[in-house]
Amino acid sequence: MNKFLSIFAVAAVALATACSTGNTDLTKSGLNKNDFVATVDGKATALYVLTNKAGMEVCVTNYGGRIVSVMVPDKDGNFKDVVLGHDSVADYINIDGNFGALIGRYGNRINQGRFTLDSITYQLPQNNFGHCLHGGPKGFHHSVWTASQPDNSRLELTLHSPDGEAGFPGNVDVKVTYSLTDDNALEISYEATTDKPTILNLTNHSYFNLSGDPSNNILDEVVTIDADAITPIDSTFMTSGEIRPVEGTAFDFRKGKKVGEEIEADDEQLKNGMGYDHNFVLNTGGDITRVAASVLDERSGIKMEVLTDEPGIQFYVGNFLNGKVKGKKGIAYPHRGAMCLETQHYPDSPNQANYPSVVVRPGETYASHCIYRFSVVK
Hints:
Layout: H1 3-21, E1 38-40, E2 43-45, E3 47-51, E4 57-61, E5 66-73, E6 79-81, H2 89-94, E7 101-103, E8 109-110, E9 114-117, E10 120-123, E11 132-133, E12 146-151, E13 154-161, E14 172-180, E15 185-194, E16 198-199, E17 203-205, E18 222-225, E19 227-231, E20 244-245, E21 257-258, H3 268-273, E22 277-282, E23 291-296, E24 302-308, E25 312-316, E26 340-344, E27 359-360, E28 366-376
Antiparallel strand pairs: 1-2, 3-4, 4-5, 5-6, 7-17, 8-11, 9-10, 12-13, 13-14, 14-15, 15-28, 16-27, 18-21, 18-23, 19-20, 19-22, 22-25, 23-24, 24-28, 25-26
């Protein structure tokens, strides 16, 4: 049975069961768990729900390890979903996009999909302007992860990536843990080991709209990024190895400003990125206790802080959203209708000796930690 027919058959059974029992089985965000039950590449998919004592809810599917919804309170105490996504596993499979996905083996771009490690040159898929983006077209975001939920606030996802998958060396075993704390923080912990020297750069590709209304754009949301520099890009979104100061440019978010304040400035980097789509060189020095970036929506009062032990963060503002993709509840996602804050090592690090290394060797454990912490400003 092909992938589509398998999904269709399982969905039909789930629908019939729901209709016969009157069971809606809806999450706080309005998702139906039955819509995430399918078999993809011989593996079962499902929807997992994390909750905390404060009433926050996070829904994750093991298809691509995707964060499907994040329900947080606004300044009036009403819970709102602040991430973009789809309300069925079939839509995640059939509609191109990285909404909420776990990204690997290498988040962001590698120049011409090629790198050399220990005198061996490896060729990866070239799926974006001749470069390898997010591990190629069949990266971790299209894998079915093995899921285990130890308690209501924690989900563990594991994946084995075989030697040579998408051209990357080494048998790699990955574990990603989503944890929801009682102070309304979603923590993501990444771990991985390998049996050959390889490169790893894992991240999450959630699209945030803190207004809680995905039909809004995010141009009025106030962003602060603790970064003195960016890694500039060319017209193919590729970095050169340069680290360029943000002082006096539209990329200076150190004191906080609205996304739309300077997005139309006459700036070559904004033209190359079609807006903000750049890696920011963080000042936090890997200190997970320091806030690397924050976002505030003054309409909802919802604030999100990003903390990480990674050296960089990719700030992307939905420049490629165009109103054609319909997400949860059939809402069309508008141009610049959300932003991503992807914690990471820098793009093309395997080919840039002056960037922090992404090499992982046998006997070492790759580790990365990211926190999205939510609060309310009244």
